[in-house]
Specification:
This protein is mainly β and 113 residues long. 11% of the residues lie in helices and 58% in strands. An eight-stranded antiparallel β-sheet has the order 1-6-7-8-2-3-4-5. The longest helix is centred in the N-terminal third of the chain and has 12 residues, at 11-22.
């Protein structure tokens, strides 16, 4: 497994590309911290997208569900680092978003045909 840190100035473009490539793939999201361990937030729902906004505070949004009308969104407030994870064969397998002592882990897998 290869983990690459994404420079802050590339967060927006990297997350847009990741979303375009993996839209509809099954996504799982878990939040990890030393105090609480690993807590699942989203389990095997189609990925709708990962976005990055900078209004008053920087926020990364991860949305998944059967449609834009019925979905779940997990927000990471004030992220400090984003890593792209790739398998040894070069395909993306997920993202990690770190911030405020918590790491949010996003795993994606193609939908079996």
């Amino acid at each position: 497994m290869l983990q690459m840190e994404i420079p802050r100035q590339e967060w927006g473009s990297t997350l847009r590309r990741f979303s375009e490539i993996h839209e509809g793939w099954l996504a799982s999201v878990e939040v990890c911290s030393p105090e609480m361990g690993s807590l699942p937030e989203i389990m095997n729902l189609p990925l709708l997208g990962v976005s990055f906004e900078t209004n008053h505070h920087t926020t990364v949004f991860i949305s998944a569900g059967p449609s834009y009308e019925y979905h779940v969104t997990h927000a990471v407030q004030q992220p400090t680092r984003i890593w792209l994870e790739r398998a040894d064969d070069g395909r993306d397998v997920g993202l990690e978003v770190g911030g405020q002592g918590v790491t949010t882990v996003v795993r994606v897998t193609p939908i079996p045909r």
